[in-house]
């Protein structure tokens, strides 16, 4: 029988500083009412200046390892849009800080789809015998790349991290990831973009949101909201259906849809397209905003801790993000307690 990746630990961390809609409305031409009705978000957490993605990743990773049955891991996959440095990857330092000496470690850059890509990548390594146990982390500090004067992005994104531990196991056991649907369309790369700082375009000195000092505009995150909205709904719905087909589940038999927490209207539109009751959609973005690669594990942990997701429940996860990229996976919840 083939080896599956089985979820055995779950941990999260959000930085303590809460930024409310009202606080943003003091400096931006926006309002609590607009943000709530157009996105579903009421607040987000932003890291204090000086806190990096790696710091959040270590905190969530530590909690996931504590939540797992036992033992370390031999692979660390970190999904992020906001690495600590352009070079090297953030994952090796996170692994080292977690005491995971000699673990293979690399970053995945699939923006908001990063966590699902990370799960698939780690599960592939486990299935191939490259790894026995893996820590998959989604961690972001979007506050460091948001343009503080851009109301179309600053109100949407938040900082945070979520992590799971996967171990080699049997495809029939609860917690086994039941397959993957991944895809991309790079012709749409300009929809979600940080133009500078890579090999195509250099970027000069930077300062994060809330930090003093000028920043070149090309180091800011930019997004074309409306087309992203449309593509997110279409791609997440199609990818979810492909995944459900692989799992052999009819949409109405799914207990919980844990979609990427971009916008509550996107989540509901996807549920409608799948023919699932909207009540089956896990909504966490109201309290943390869109945390990109961290959003699915954060939403999952919130639903588990809040008693929504119970052992034996059928859980479908689906994401859409920059690239553009999308991905879905599914599992029967194994009874893991979130930390
Ligand atoms: N506060 C007040 N008004 C705002 C605003 C804000 N923060 N942001 C935009 N507006 C204004 C626009 O300027 C526009 O004004 P106009 O009609 O005078 O031109 C109006 O609100 C409507 O803007 P629009 O972009 O059409 O709003 P929308 O309903 O599409 O909502 C998003 C904007 C960004 C919330 C929505 O498009 C979205 O969620 N997109 C997906 C984002 C996402 O999830 N990205 C992550 C990757 S998946």
Automatic annotation (TrEMBL):
* Chief location category: cytoplasm
Give the pathway annotation: Lipid metabolism; fatty acid biosynthesis
Protein family according to the UniProt entry: Belongs to the thiolase-like superfamily. FabH family.
What Enzyme Commission number(s) appear in the record? 2.3.1.180
Q: Does the keyword Cytoplasm apply?
A: yes
Q: Which domain of life is it from?
A: Bacteria
Q: What is the protein's quaternary organization?
A: Homodimer.
- Record remark on domains: The last Arg residue of the ACP-binding site is essential for the weak association between ACP/AcpP and FabH.
Q: Which residues form a coiled coil?
A: none
**Which InterPro entries does the UniProt record give?**
ACP_syn_III_C, ACP_syn_III_N, FabH, Thiolase-like
Q: Which HAMAP family does the annotation name?
A: FabH
Q: Where in the cell is it found?
A: Cytoplasm
Which residues belong to any copy of the Beta-ketoacyl-[acyl-carrier-protein] synthase III C-terminal domain?
A: 244-333
Q: Which organism is it from?
A: Streptomyces katsurahamanus
Q: What is this protein called?
A: Beta-ketoacyl-[acyl-carrier-protein] synthase III
The residues annotated as the active site are 112, 260, 290
Known function: Catalyzes the condensation reaction of fatty acid synthesis by the addition to an acyl acceptor of two carbons from malonyl-ACP. Catalyzes the first condensation reaction which initiates fatty acid synthesis and may therefore play a role in governing the total rate of fatty acid production. Possesses both acetoacetyl-ACP synthase and acetyl transacylase activities. Its substrate specificity determines the biosynthesis of branched-chain and/or straight-chain of fatty acids.
